[in-house]
Amino acid sequence: MYDELLKFAVQLAKAAGGIQLAYFRGDRLSIETKSNVYDVVTRADRESEKQTLATSVIASGFPYDKDVNPDNNSDNVARIIPYVRDVRRLGSAAYDISCVAAGLLDGYWELALHEWDVCAAELILAEAGGVVCDLRRDRGISIVAGNGAIVKEILKYVR
């Protein structure tokens, strides 16, 4: 399963009209507009159905100011790692959230993101049946993503 990780991800978004998102994952290109979804080489999204962290592989990242700001996500990684199968750092937020949407990762969280990091990927995850929730508001866009059960579990350990 984990040997299928995305090769790359591209996202586009526009708040009103026009292209909403586009991404490429190995064998699938999806382009979603306001009124239609177009899939080239269709492969169904398969957002994870796991219910516990013990069997979950999750991803996270670190804010760009991690070297000067002690509120840099390291404490969250230290708190959650005893409870998960593994934690990965793969790439951009768009890439990681798309991996959750595809069922290649089970969950994701990160601090201090920007709208351009997540807007299209959040739509991809929603279309796959996943959820995104706010983690906190004092560090830019800080989110947790996955299925409802995994998001709830991640929120027990990350702040």
Structure description:
- Helix content is 23%, strand content 27%.
- By secondary structure, it is α/β, with parallel strands linked by helices.
- A hairpin with a 4-residue loop joins β7 and β8 (141-146).
- α2 (93-101) packs parallel to α3 (115-127).
- The longest helix has 13 residues, at 115-127.
- The chain is globular.
- Mean pLDDT is 80; it is low at 40-45.
Topology at a glance:
Layout: E1 19-25, E2 28-33, E3 37-40, E4 57-60, H1 74-80, E5 86-88, H2 93-101, E6 107-113, H3 115-127, E7 131-136, E8 141-146, H4 148-155
Parallel strand pairs: 4-5, 4-6
Antiparallel strand pairs: 1-2, 2-3, 6-8, 7-8
Helix pairs in contact: 2-3
Number of strands: 8
Roughly how many Å apart are the termini? 29 Å
For the residues shown, what is the average pLDDT? 80
Which value, in Å, is the CA radius of gyration? 15 Å
Number of helix segments?
A: 4
